[in-house]
Design a protein that fits this description.
7 strands; 243 residues; 47% helix; alpha/beta; 9 helices
Length: 243
């Protein structure tokens, strides 16, 4: 897909990986929809517009189906249809399973997995009419191999992989691609909070011996959006952690 003048909606894009993805698409000439639970700052919108593209901010909760519909309606009114959807928004509530509450499990699944469904189903209807589009879902290596203390997070991210493959099969005849990106340890606010000893242990487990950067994930997203013959895949951005 030629990304110039296309509309790209990135959920959870006020910081971190989401913002890096939005920025990478803007550099390709795409118009950007920034999203968060809180109002997107004017400075952030101006930062994206500096690349010579249009940019709007929409506020809403992806775990709420109606909220997703309202955000997409606002997007269509201001920019037009969504050509690329990046389901990036997600949370974690890490605890060992025996200490995890039902609420801990359900909240993570509701935002990470149900939120991905809420956005994708509504965007896909319009993409089907356009007979074009790209859907990118952020999974995780935890969804592939599991991780201690992340039963809820790993389950939600594994669910995204199955969801991605199914959407890819259902949408293929309309020339719509759907892929998942599974980051490993990426340098973000979340990983920066880890103790130095933990960071060192993690680094030693990565064949490339370093954490990834948010730009590594962003570049992968752009590559997949520009690749019309890649669909139903899970691309690991993990320094070789899972191989």
């Amino acid at each position: 897909m030629d990304l110039k003048n296309k509309n790209v909606f990135v959920t959870g894009s006020s910081r971190g990986i989401g913002l890096a993805i939005a920025t990478a698409f803007a550099k390709e000439g795409a118009n950007i929809v920034l999203n968060g639970r809180k109002e997107i700052s004017k400075d952030l919108i101006a930062q994206i517009k500096a690349y010579g593209v249009d940019c709007i901010g929409v506020t809403g909760d992806i775990s709420d189906f109606e909220s997703c519909g309202q955000m997409l309606q606002e997007t269509e009114e201001k920019l037009g249809p969504v050509h690329v959807l990046v389901n990036n928004a997600g949370i974690n509530k890490d605890k060992l399973l025996l200490r995890m509450t039902q609420a801990d499990f359900e909240e993570v699944v509701k935002i990470n997995l149900t939120g991905t469904f809420n956005m994708t189903q509504q965007v896909l209807k319009k993409m089907m009419k356009l007979k074009m589009g790209c859907i990118l879902n952020l999974s995780s290596v935890s969804g592939v191999i599991g991780n201690v203390g992340q039963a809820n997070y790993a389950a939600s991210k594994a669910g995204i992989i199955g969801f991605t493959k199914t959407v890819a099969k259902e949408a293929a005849l309309r020339h719509i691609t759907c892929n998942a990106i599974a980051p490993g340890f990426i340098q973000t606010d979340m990983t920066n909070a880890l103790a130095d000893k933990v960071k060192e242990q993690v680094t030693q487990s990565i064949p490339l011996k370093e954490f990834g950067q948010v730009e590594d994930v962003a570049q992968t997203a752009v590559f997949l959006a520009k690749s019309p013959y890649i669909t139903g895949q899970v691309i690991h951005v993990d320094g070789g952690l899972v191989m």
